C-alpha cells in the first residue's frame, strides 16, 4: 500500500514539474514572438488561485 502511495506522490511531483516547465515555455514564447502585444499577456493570479497554489506547495513539501 505504501509503495503505491509513494508512486502516486512521484507522479504528482512529475506532473507539477511538467506544468511548471510548460508555463515557462509559454511565457518565453509569448515574450519572444509577441513582445509588443498587450492582449497576449498573462493575467495575474486571483486570490483564490494563489491560495490553492500555496496549499498545493505546502502539501507537496510535506511529502
From TrEMBL:
<keyword id="KW-0963">Cytoplasm</keyword>
<dbReference type="GO" id="GO:0005876">
    <property type="term" value="C:spindle microtubule"/>
</dbReference>
<dbReference type="GO" id="GO:0007059">
    <property type="term" value="P:chromosome segregation"/>
</dbReference>
<dbReference type="GO" id="GO:0000940">
    <property type="term" value="C:outer kinetochore"/>
</dbReference>
<dbReference type="GO" id="GO:0000278">
    <property type="term" value="P:mitotic cell cycle"/>
</dbReference>
<keyword id="KW-0206">Cytoskeleton</keyword>
<comment type="similarity">
    <text>Belongs to the SKA2 family.</text>
</comment>
<dbReference type="GO" id="GO:0008017">
    <property type="term" value="F:microtubule binding"/>
</dbReference>
<feature type="domain" description="Ska2 N-terminal">
    <location>
        <begin position="2"/>
        <end position="37"/>
    </location>
</feature>
<keyword id="KW-0493">Microtubule</keyword>
<keyword id="KW-0995">Kinetochore</keyword>
<dbReference type="GO" id="GO:0051301">
    <property type="term" value="P:cell division"/>
</dbReference>
<dbReference type="InterPro" id="IPR042091">
    <property type="entry name" value="Ska2_N"/>
</dbReference>
<dbReference type="Pfam" id="PF16740">
    <property type="entry name" value="SKA2"/>
</dbReference>
<keyword id="KW-0131">Cell cycle</keyword>
<keyword id="KW-0498">Mitosis</keyword>
<dbReference type="InterPro" id="IPR026762">
    <property type="entry name" value="Ska2"/>
</dbReference>
<keyword id="KW-0158">Chromosome</keyword>
<keyword id="KW-0137">Centromere</keyword>
<keyword id="KW-0132">Cell division</keyword>
<protein>
    <recommendedName>
        <fullName>Protein FAM33A</fullName>
    </recommendedName>
</protein>
